[in-house]
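Teaching assistant here, posting this on the class forum so everyone can see the example we discussed in section. The complex has two components, and the goal was to see what a joint structure prediction looks like when all of them are supplied at once.
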Amino acid sequence: MIYLRYFRGSTFLHRLDPRAKLLILLFFIFVEIAFRDVRIIVIPFAAALILYLSARIPFREVKGTWRFMVLLIVIIGGINGVFLFAFPGANAHVIARYWFFTVTVEGISAATAAILKLLAVAIATVTMVLTTDPSLYGPSLAKLGIPYKGAYVFDLAMRYLPAYVNDLETTLNAQMARGYRTKGGKNIFATIINTIPLIIPVSINAMLSVYEVADAMELRAFGAKKQRTWFRIIVFKQTDYAVVATVLVALAVFVYLRVLDPGIWVPT
Amino acid sequence: MTEQKPSPPGHVDVFQRESLFSTKNLVATAVGIALYAALTIPFNVFTIPGVYDVAIRPTVAIPIAFGFIFGPVAGFFSGFIGNILSDQLSFGAFFWNWDLGNGLIGLIPAIGFYVVKRTDWAKTKGLAASAILAVIASIVGIGFSALTDFIFQIGLTTVGAAVAEFIPAAVTDAINGAIIAPILIYTYVQSTAGRARRL
């Protein structure tokens, strides 16, 4: 599974400034935190889907990522739903009762909203990561005013992340060839100990590389001066300004909607 | 007796205390973030049944070990940003207080970085210290998250719900940290034996 790879392309999203993409993401996160109303959450969900489809990422390449993500969201949404249906609020509209679950209109509405929220942010984040050239993370963060050391740390982390996911898969295959089983034991201790053959090799390899990388960077005078320039130069274009303006207007509208406080939507 | 001379420009004093944001610490931070995020994403599937959004994380040992081995900056940011990245990239949830709680889990073991002597790290004393610090860090970190969840009403409304969230998460994190972090530290010390200036 190649989890988060950059796909080269020339669509609208590929050409968009990374800072504008960050603003779009922050907008999705704001909506996720602020709303519980299905009718409102459908809008960012649709927007995220449109963004993803407009990026024209080959589905075959990211199938594994989506399968994993949807599975995770369904599990989390299901657990959330169990809670919602096990403890219904007072004067809720009851549809049916099974065992200790009480299916209510409010419960269905809130559970759908929770899943749609997670899906919207997940789709938006993955789309942004898949369409942003990894070599642009550092320069764009530095342009936002973050000190270059911080920007470089994030740049480096995003560069290593897919590599470590690959390392984990390689280690898993190598251990399975030696008779390792992914199924955990019966109790929690067995489950934990079972993960050690996976975590330790990947972590130790990574930790041993720290000094080599640091030496290589210091040989290139990293950290010698207060300022450092970047090879890639990022310029805000007219389309970027248009996108930022659109997002800000949308944000204002959603803040206004939040002030009205819709809460959970109950169809009557 | 002797007055300390200012070192000439370009001269590096080998014995001077390492700065918190030295290149080594920055690289360790980046590696910690990437490692925590990359290894946590697959483990996010093992969610504890019955508790909302709390996952069993063997990888919580990574910020703990990074805090212990590389100091507070690497520990805090690998927990904080690593958790943001792993949550965002696996199921798209954003909880600032859980991210900060994970940061605390990495920050507290850095006490060991300052207190325990380097030569004791792979001995019983250092390993026991790391295990104890892992338990304290899990309780404080998850305690912070559950408390802020309750104070700011993020998904929880009662004290009972906060406790129901705190206990399984803190216990599993403490067990995970206390088992895996000492193993990580021991393996790291053993595999760096004979290499120059690794500790």
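For the discussion questions: The mean pLDDT of chain A is 84. The first strand of chain A starts at residue 94 and ends at 98. Think about how each of these relates to the inputs above.
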